[in-house]
Please model this.
Amino acid sequence: DALFMAPPVYTEMANILNDETYIDFMDQEFKLTHDFLYDKEEHLYYRDHRYFPDLKREENGEKIFWGRGNGWVMGGLVAILKDLPKESKYRPFYLQTYKEMAAKVITCQDAKGFWHASMLDHESFPDPEVSSSSFFTYTLAYGINEDILDKAKYKPAVTKAWQAITSAVYADGKLGWVQPIGQDPKTVTADMTEVYGVGAFLLAGTEMLRMVEQEI
Model:
């Protein structure tokens, strides 16, 4: 959550006040967190130190990477990239991290187009999780729209993801399959919903609309 909420504020403040001090501070703090929680082999983030693999793992032996937690991070990276000037000396790190995560994320998508509460253990968490799925739909679609990600490779995954998350909108408008507030993978049911899930879904919609408009 912190990497989604705080860093983009500093980047925006730097632009508003024309003061790079804010970006410099943001960059230092982000990289401290990155160095501590980013798995350089899996290209995903641990929620916090309690989920390091030497302390606990999923039932299938895989490392514990929380779906929504990584969705928050990718959403934060997109927000930073939107505000960082193309020529900024800070930009390459965030762009590279975004690309690494994107490449990993599409390998974690299930056959129906969803992501799950656990990125690497769909057997223990077989049901879809729509807040993470919406975040990944949003962030991957952004990469396609900005020519950051290869369209031929990523658009099929994004199209399938959009079809999946829209199927979780019920006749009365409720968005289901959203994991409640938490800190790690938990069981999700069809009737569960939360406002942040709806927010992520709407973000996904903005990029899907932009994709359609660019193709008209």
